[in-house]
Amino acid sequence: MTPTLGLYFDFRNPEPWRRDPTAYHRWHLDLMEEADRRGIGALWVTEHHLVDDGYLPQPLAALAAVAARTRRARLGTAVLLAPLQPPMLIAEQAALVDVISGGRLELGLGAGYVAPEFEAYGVDISRRYLDTDHALAEVGRILTDGGCTPGPVQSPVPIWAGYLGPVGARRAGRLGVGLLTHRRDSFPIYHEALVEAGHDATTARMGGVVDFLVAEDPERTFEQVLPHRTHQLNSYRQNAAKGTGRTPRMLTEEEVREGRGSGVIAPLRVLTPDDAAAEIAAICEGLPVEHLFFWASIGGMPEELVEAQMGLVIDRVQPAVAAR
């Protein structure tokens, strides 16, 4: 299986490099339109709330804008925080994006983990996995059974679970949805649960973000990205500690350079286009990987780095992966 390659956007606009918000969001839309014109396979967005660097809070609203300006690329959420919205609202928004895009939506739903986000929405965080399981089933039912108007173009809309680890893999398999991870050890659990629940084993599909960027000069680019990666990791640490009473320890650039302190997030690498294509082939070997996506920007990277990587992914990595 040849995966569809994409770019992954969080719209972060952190203080050390802050741009005018309106201009910055318009630049993102321009970039996504250009990526679509040049042949990128997919464009993905994500969701968090109350983050002081402007992290995208409403992925389907953003994708509606992207849908209106693109023609070919698949449009995905990785992930929309399902417990924070009623399934009917998710389904209506998803259907509208699917209609505007002409049937290009990939709907990834996840549980979330940041306590103040749940407090802001008046939602019980202790129920987040139950609520997400319910949303994965109910949103799919609404979209498939004509439960909202207008209905989606696709039947069915591809739905993904943004679950990690063995328990998450089993949940996704039991529900018969895609699994937004490409961890090799998750596949047997996911596949077994899919079959046990009576789903067609050939519908198994995996995907997710890769832990590397692409550049002609990896060492130079790594050093340019390092402060932005440090911001990204420290922001995740701050987010995870919100509402817990803990004070997270902030990482230094030297620790990030050495690959320390990433936790569940793999250390970042920067690869040449050829090495990136080889890495993708290794990731996909023996797995039903349908989608892989690169961070378009990490922690508000300079525009020239973002645009350079986009060009390499489209012009060098995609053709090399397709040719294997």
Shape: globular
How many structurally independent domains?
Answer: 1
The CATH architecture category equals: Alpha-Beta Barrel
**What number is the mean pLDDT?**
97
Structural class computed from helices and strand pairing: alpha/beta
Task: Note the run of SSEs as H and E.
Answer: EHEHEHEHHEHEHEEHHEHEH
What is the topology, as strand order, of the major beta sheet? 6-5-4-3-2-1-10-7
| CATH fold group | TIM Barrel
Residue fraction in strands: 5-15%
Query: Which stretches are low in confidence, meaning pLDDT under 50 for 5 or more residues running?
Result: none
CATH homologous superfamily classification: Luciferase-like domain
Q: Supply the CATH class.
A: Alpha Beta
Distance from first to last alpha carbon: 10 Å
Radius of gyration: 19 Å
Helical proportion, percent range:
40-55%
Query: What characterizes the major β-sheet?
Result: 8 strands, parallel
Total strand count, please? 10
Number of helices: 11
